């Protein structure tokens, strides 16, 4: 028989619309990068930022570059 089991269906799951970054995501834009971090200077998750996977990877790279250049702290 070719029927799907009800056990594994995704019911009631709302797919959120991913947001685009409002400002350019560059290592030089320190204030915007700091807003995408927690008070302990950890990078916020995709669920919190609402970015797509591609935008989240760009954000991660920009934050790591800013940390390397001592524009942002590694920890608080």
Q: What structural category arises from helix and sheet content?
A: mainly alpha
Inertia-based shape: elongated
The CATH first-level class comes to Few Secondary Structures
Tally of domains = 1
User: At the third CATH level, what is the topology name?
Assistant: 30s Ribosomal Protein S18
Report helical residue fraction.
25-40%
Mean pLDDT: 85
Distance from first to last alpha carbon = 58 Å
Spans where pLDDT lies below 50 across 5 or more residues: none
Largest sheet report? none
| Beta strands, count | 0
Number of helices: 3
Give a short overview:
The protein is an all-alpha fold and 76 residues long.
Give a written overview of the molecule.
It contains three helices and no strands. The model has no long low-confidence stretch (mean pLDDT 85). It has one domain (21-76): 30s Ribosomal Protein S18 (Irregular). The longest helix has 16 residues, at 53-68. The N and C termini lie far apart (58 Å). The protein has helices at residues 30-35, 46-49, 53-68.
Key descriptive features of the protein:
34% helix; single chain; 0% strand; 30s Ribosomal Protein S18; 76 residues; mainly alpha
Topology:
Blueprint (H helix, E strand, L loop, with lengths): L29 H6 L10 H4 L3 H16 L8
